[in-house]
Design goal:
Helices cover about 0% and strands about 50% of the residues. The strands form two sheets. Strands 2, 4, 5, 6, 9, 10 and 11 form a seven-stranded mixed beta sheet that branches. It is built from no helices and eleven strands.
């Protein structure tokens, strides 16, 4: 099973940017679909974006045009570039590995999460 460690969270003002990184262990990273999910206080965890092993991407409507997911299979790392951040983006962001990028329920390996706070 792959192990995931996120980094890059923090406090940013509305309109600002952050870049999250997720380092994965294991030699089979390139075979996994990777994704980012988030959980705001008092809410359930929700899908943000996923990327297939070949680079096909999926985004939640709430982040389209503002967030970009990418992966570097040589570095076993997936990234989330977040631009034009809004207070409603405040949440704990989780990196995840799964079987099918277009099927969020197929994601079963999770990182510990990193806090993103957007002030208004």
């Amino acid at each position: 099973q792959v192990q995931l460690v996120e980094s890059g969270g923090g406090l940013v003002q509305a309109g600002g940017s952050l870049r999250l990184s997720c380092a994965a262990s294991g030699r089979t990273f390139s075979s996994y679909a990777m994704g980012w999910f988030r959980q705001a206080p008092g809410k359930e965890r929700e899908f943000v974006t996923t990327i297939s092993w070949s680079g096909n991407t999926h985004y939640a409507d709430s982040v389209k045009g503002r967030f970009t997911i990418s992966r570097d299979n040589a570095k076993n790392t997936v990234y989330l570039q977040m631009n034009n951040l809004k207070p409603e983006d405040t949440a704990v962001y989780y990196c995840a590995a799964g079987k099918v990028a277009g099927v969020p329920s197929s994601f079963g390996s999770w990182g510990q999460g990193t806090q993103v706070t957007v002030s208004s």
